[in-house]
């Protein structure tokens, strides 16, 4: 007879099923997400994060901010809650670009901005919580975020604490005006800094980082996590020679490296197809595919 599932295991499975369905944020669903985000089990928290990110519903924002600002909770739980806010803010920012005239409730966004800034400026808050606040806020959609967020990123980069420098690089990858800092970080002596710089370069589409990514990915003597990051960046940067390197990496015995290389190959294929499908200047016509000129 198989052992009965524990309540924690049942919660985990329910969260995974709900995440696949992308449901609206009902009161019941928000309560389930709360239980998941507050779990001491990392896998259960990750499943709850997938649920909230997949939904993208702003109704989750009050819950996220409640957990993020609750000083009685463990820093990891607070930080994991804040991580979820980043993709929600990113979706807000993208929707504002796509539909600038659409009516939106700005109250949750304003509340999120104020809470994240307060967390960052709270010197008594755990470093993890303050870092996560900046990492989420960099994805905020409004110009009134820019002053304090960019100041926080530059302060993090200037810090002697490597944890803050890693946060700075993540944030730099979300913007287009930190190219010099990212390129400098690619030559750092610390593999963790190089890893984050490669990720940032890929996210920010810094083509000049392509040779660095190729060299790191090719060299079996390179730190494993740096090679993994390089393989991921190659899919985004697609420098000359990336295809051959990624095909070699896909055949590697290292399962993670092989998987990332396969994903990058797929990404390069999709991007190449999109570029091929883009109409050239002579391909445009004022008529639809099935229309004839009068």
Structure characterization notes:
The protein has 294 residues and is an all-alpha fold. The protein has a domain at 176-277: Leucine-rich Repeat Variant (Alpha Horseshoe), CATH 1.25.10.10. The protein is 67% helix and 0% strand. The protein has helices spanning 7-21, 27-37, 42-55, 61-68, 75-98, 107-121, 127-137, 146-157, 162-172, 179-185, 191-203, 210-218, 224-237, 242-250, 255-277. α2 (27-37) packs antiparallel against α3 (42-55), α12 crosses α13 (224-237) and α14 (242-250) packs antiparallel against α15 (255-277). The relative contact order is 0.05. Residues 284-294 have low confidence and may be disordered.
How is this structure best summarized?
This protein is an all-alpha fold. 67% of the residues lie in helices and 0% in strands.
Give short descriptive properties of this protein.
294 residues, mainly alpha, Leucine-rich Repeat Variant, 15 helices, 67% helix, disordered C terminus
């Amino acid at each position: 007879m198989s052992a009965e599932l524990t309540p924690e295991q049942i919660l985990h499975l329910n969260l995974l099923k709900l995440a696949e369905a992308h449901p609206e944020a009902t009161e019941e669903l928000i309560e389930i997400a709360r239980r998941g985000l507050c779990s001491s089990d990392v896998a259960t928290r990750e499943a709850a994060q997938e649920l909230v990110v997949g939904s993208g519903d702003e109704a989750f924002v009050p819950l996220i901010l409640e957990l993020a600002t609750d000083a009685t909770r463990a820093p990891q739980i607070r930080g994991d809650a804040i991580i979820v806010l980043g993709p929600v803010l990113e979706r807000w920012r993208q929707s504002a670009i796509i539909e600038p005239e659409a009516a939106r409730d700005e109250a949750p966004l304003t509340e999120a901005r104020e809470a994240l800034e307060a967390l960052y400026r709270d010197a008594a808050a755990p470093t993890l919580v303050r870092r996560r606040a900046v990492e989420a806020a960099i994805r905020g959609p409004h110009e009134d975020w820019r002053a304090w967020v960019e100041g926080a990123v530059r302060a993090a980069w200037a810090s002697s604490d490597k944890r803050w420098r890693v946060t700075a690089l993540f944030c730099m990858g979300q913007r287009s005006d930190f190219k010099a800092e990212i390129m400098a970080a690619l030559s750092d002596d610390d593999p963790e800094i190089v890893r984050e710089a490669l990720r940032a370069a890929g996210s920010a589409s810094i083509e000049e980082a392509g040779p660095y990514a190729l060299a790191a990915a090719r060299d079996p003597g390179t730190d494993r996590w740096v090679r993994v990051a390089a393989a991921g960046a190659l899919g985004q940067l697609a420098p000359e020679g990336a295809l051959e390197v990624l095909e070699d990496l896909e055949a590697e015995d290292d399962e993670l490296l092989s998987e990332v290389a396969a994903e990058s190959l797929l990404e390069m294929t999709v991007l190449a197809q999109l570029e091929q499908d883009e109409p050239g200047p002579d391909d445009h016509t004022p008529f639809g595919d099935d229309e004839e000129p009068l």
